[in-house]
Amino acid sequence: MKLGLATVERVVDLDPFALGLSFLFPRAQLDDLRPHAALLAPDHVDFETGDLLLGVQSFVLRVGGLTILIDSCVGENKERGRRKDWHQRKGTSYLRSLAAAGVTPDDVDVVLCTHLHADHVGWNTRLENGRWVPTFPHARYMIGKAELAAWQTEEVRAPGVANHGAYADSVLPVIEAGLVETVTDGFEITRGLTVLPLPGHSPGQIGLDLDYGESRHALFCGDAIHSPAQVFKPEWTSAFCTNAEQAVASRMGLLERAAQDGSLIAPSHIRNAIGFRVERCGCDFRPSFVCEGA
User: Fold this and answer.
1) Is 225 within 8 Å of 251 (Cβ atoms)?
2) Which end of the chain has the smaller Cβ count within 10 Å, N or C?
3) What's the CA gap between 153 and 130, in Å, rounded?
4) CATH: 1.10.443.10, 3.40.47.10, 2.60.120.380, 3.60.15.10. Which one for 2-290?
5) pTM here?
6) Count of Cβ atoms closer than 10 Å to residue 28 Cβ
């Protein structure tokens, strides 16, 4: 998809990634979504099983002469015993899909980690001769300063336990390789591309605000919005959010802004679309999906 002089493409690692509605959103009721079934089914909600259908994917953003990978998904060969669909994956198509998008690991200039949950950092590293090495050896791995500090504190408290052990195998190796750059709110990666604060789901989650001309913006928002279901029910907070009140505030800020200025919202787990735009319907919001090539 072209966004002014920028282009964006999805690279899928795992799809569909099905989670029970009440598992992800403990206070949610499926009946609250039935009036919106025409928009949510079949891509985002399975009304027969009660599952939310997510994708686990990266966005490849080309802008200002840079190739930027937004989040690096689950990865391979990772010990993820608490999730069978993530555990010791082998022979996946992720790197082939990246190549199909015209990108090799050596081509990536920036890996933007919206946050450090295991399904967003897995391909930061790959196993080579028994060691975890950076998958993207020439990239700057950009991580929110507050996000990194929070997980480093957690790692000291309980080494290898939190977050499926992802810090040890997917974050620490790129730090030790000298490839990590911590960023703060408003940091400009290149002209028109700035870091967006989106705390709540994790302590220091960040996103990217792409200004692609004529006051048009695309907001890559990580897990500030997991599913389009939260456009209709923004008060639904995931079971994995660090601070529920902050998470709702970050989500409402995105929705209010998009409804006002027409920004494209691009969540990490959106399926079969680049993202969506939002319109007001009385006191509520309604998404309009934007697909590749649009």
Assistant:
1) yes
2) C
3) 27
4) 3.60.15.10
5) 0.96
6) 23
- Cβ–Cβ contacts within 10 Å for residue 95, how many? 17
Question: What's the distance, CA 167 to chain centroid?
Answer: 17
pLDDT in tens, 115-149: 999 999 999 999 999 999 999 999 999 999 999 99
Look at the block and give the residue holding tokens 């994956």: 89
Q: Where are the beta strands (DSSP E) in the chain?
A: 2-3, 6-20, 45-46, 51-63, 66-70, 110-113, 125-128, 131-134, 140-144, 180-183, 188-190, 193-197, 206-211, 217-220, 264-266, 275-281, 284-290
Q: Which of 131, 121, 114 is nearest to 165 (CA)?
A: 121
Amino acid occupying residue 174: V
